[in-house]
Amino acid sequence: MGGDHRDVPREETPARTGSTGSPPGRGHSGAGFPLQAGQEGTGAQLDEDGDLDVVRRPRAASDPDPVWPPRDKVHPMILAQEEEDVLGDEARESSTHNIIKIEHTMATPLEDVGKQVWRGALFLADYLLFQRDLFQGRTVLELGAGTGFTSIIAATAAQTVYCTDVGADLLAMCQRNIALNSHLTAPGGGGVKVRELDWLKDDLCTDPEVPFSWSEEDISDLYGHTTILLAAEVFYDDDLTDALFKTLFRLAHRLKNACTAILSVEKRLNFTLSHLDVTCEAYDHFRACLRQLEQLQDGQLRFAVEPVEAAFPQRLEYERIRQLIFVEPGT
């Protein structure tokens, strides 16, 4: 990516002391330092609790024929997040508008996948940079924004961007990323507003005691001016995909203007035991939801779904694979 990825602090675990040299989780027989047997080899030594006492012979530096190859000493090390800009003054001045700084996590459990920057988000960001005129002066709502990366790109042209997701820690990360890149916001725009939007709930949270809740002014602006909705790489779980499409349908009824939703998805292929074949079940479910949305007609709304060709330039650094797909449902 054409930005400065900021990894969260990590602690590396030191190598085990006293190891015989076997890989973790792997045993060895015969080779290495033998267990110390008791007198005349009749029994192994036990500690005061009756447990087997494993005694390893330290290798002398002068050992002419060591059993295992020498190992480098490994010390624990904590990687601290940088407090100061690593760019020099000249580089910082010349590249201010070319660098996006994103705090994110390289690997997470499934429930925290929003803290990673996914390829589909970079793909969507490239499209936003290519179609800047489409977003000029608009009000944009991003669903499942994760780190806020796509919302930041949208804010380079849009009037206002509502960057939404769930989880106070994730939304706080969004807020920090937006502050890091505030210089990229379109001049005269309303910037990026981080708000909670839970797809499993019908209404927006307006409790002022809840972090990232909505004010009445926010809600009025959202429903009165939003014309573009964004979502990238949020179609990995069937239940969440269903919830997102219900949210799209609900929002479309509440928005005063016709809107376009731009959805970015990576078609992931997996071998499944149930099919004994390579399938892409999450993507298939996503396509089924699109078809249902297109068929919905309640007298007030009609949805049209159009694919988007990936023929636009690539300005960010990532692997643009053919499994990256765009669709545009619109009302």
UniProtKB/TrEMBL annotation:
Keywords (A to Z) from UniProt: Methyltransferase, Nucleus, Phosphoprotein, S-adenosyl-L-methionine, Transferase
MF term (GO), any: protein methyltransferase activity
One GO location term (cellular component): nucleus
Subcellular location: Nucleus
Sequence segments annotated as region (Disordered): 1-73
Reaction catalysed by this enzyme: L-lysyl-[protein] + 3 S-adenosyl-L-methionine = N(6),N(6),N(6)-trimethyl-L-lysyl-[protein] + 3 S-adenosyl-L-homocysteine + 3 H(+)
Short name of one Pfam family: Methyltransf_16
Coiled coil location: none
InterPro entries reported for this sequence: Methyltransf_16, METTL22, SAM-dependent_MTases_sf
Recorded superkingdom: Eukaryota
Gene Ontology terms describing biological process: methylation
Segments of skewed composition (Basic and acidic residues): 1-14, 53-62
Quaternary structure and partners: Interacts with members of the heat shock protein 90 and 70 families; these proteins probably are methylation substrates.
Record family assignment: Belongs to the methyltransferase superfamily. METTL22 family.
Function (record text): Protein N-lysine methyltransferase.
Protein name, entry field: Methyltransferase-like protein 22
Lineage, broadest ranks: Eukaryota, Metazoa, Chordata, Craniata, Vertebrata
